[in-house]
Amino acid sequence: MLGKLTKHEFLTVGRMALPTYIGVLLIAVVGRFLTWLTSRKYLIDNVPKTFVKIIQILSSLLSTIYVIAFIALIVMTIFLMVYRFYKNFFTDEGYLMNTLPVRPASLVTSKLFNSWIWIIFSLIIAFGSLYITLGHYDQLIDMFKNLGTAISDVLDREGDFIRDELGVPIWVFVVELVFLALSYVTRYILTWYSSVGFGMLLSKKHKVLGTLIAYLILEIVSYILVGIYLAVAAEVVPNYYDIINTSGGKALQLVVVGSLVLNTIMSGLLFWFDCFIMKHRLNID
Description:
Layout: H1 2-38, H2 41-46, H3 49-90, H4 93-97, H5 104-134, H6 137-166, H7 170-202, H8 207-236, H9 240-246, H10 248-280
C-alpha cells in the first residue's frame, strides 16, 4: 500500500511540476541560443543593427526571466510539498485518505518520500538549466577535473594529518556529511508538515496564518533544543572546551555528529507529531 500511495502522489505532483521544469529548461535553451547568436561576429557584421539590438534585448530579457524562473522552481517545489500535504489530509480529500486501510505513519511516509524525490528532481533541473545557460562546457568539465585533482593531491599529502584532526577516517566523515544533509532536509520537510497540522489546530479560518505561526513556533523550539544540546554536550563530552579551542577538526566532528543526532531526534519527534495529529486531532474542512 505504501508503494501505491507513493506512486499515486508522484504522478499527481508530476502533472503540476513537470510543466514548470520543462519551462525552465526551454527558457535556458532559448536564452543560451540568443547569447550564442549575439557572440557571432559574422552575424553582427552582416545583418541590420536593429536586428542585433533586438536579439540583445531579448537575450537580456530572457536572462531576467530565467533568474525569476530559477527562483520560482525552488519556491514551487516547497509550495507543492506543503500544499499536497494540506490538501490530502485537511480538506475534503481527507475524508477519503483517512479511511484508507493504512496507518497515518504510512501516509506521512509516502508524502516524505515524494518530497525527497521532487527535491532531487528540482536540484537536477536547476543545475541542468544552469549548465545550459552558462555554456563553456569544456571549461566547466576542466574545472571539475582540476578540482578533483586538487582534492586528490591534498588527500595524498595531508591525508594522515586530516584523519588525525578529525579522529575518524576521511570516508567516514564524508558519509557523516551526506547523512547530515539528508537529516537537515528531512527535518525541514517534516517541520512544514507539522506546521500545517498544528496550524489547523491554531486557526481553522486563517489556515495560512496559522501554518506560518506554527512554523515560527517550531523553529523557536528547534533553537531551544540546540541550546539544550550544547549545554548537555559541554557537560558530557570530556574536555569539551579544550577540544573546541585547540582542535579544529575534532570541533568540526563534534558539530557534525551532534547536528546529525539532533536532527534525527527532531525528525522523529516531528514525524510522531504528524501521525498523532492525523490520528487524534484531525481538523478537516
